[in-house]
Fold this protein.
Amino acid sequence: MSEPQVTTDAQRAAAQTIGVPVARRHIFLCCDQTTPKCCDKERGLAAWEFLKRRLRELGLSEQGGILRTKANCLRICEGGPIAVVYPEGAWYARCDPPVLERIIQEHLVGGRVVQDALIIERALE
């Protein structure tokens, strides 16, 4: 039995609901890995739960301009949890709640890359 086809209208509605049309930045966080390498699974999931909660509390989720995605692996398999923020292409290490709070306040809201947590910065063209 094949999967039911999702209509383009339904997909557009879902994109609208999660705030794609108003997004200014998108943060990807490496967590819930199939084979944890950069940090233990529990630590990554705790970081994810913190990120989701804080973005909601600050009104940054959905129509607040910040998209978030849980990534299985960002391929920098040490010093995690690892995060990357676009459009700047800022890759961050040690993204436990204190570092995530700084990324939220300084980068996602303030537009300034958090230099002391930065691995590398490369915007995509």
Observations:
- The radius of gyration is 15 Å.
- The chain is about 35% helix and 20% strand.
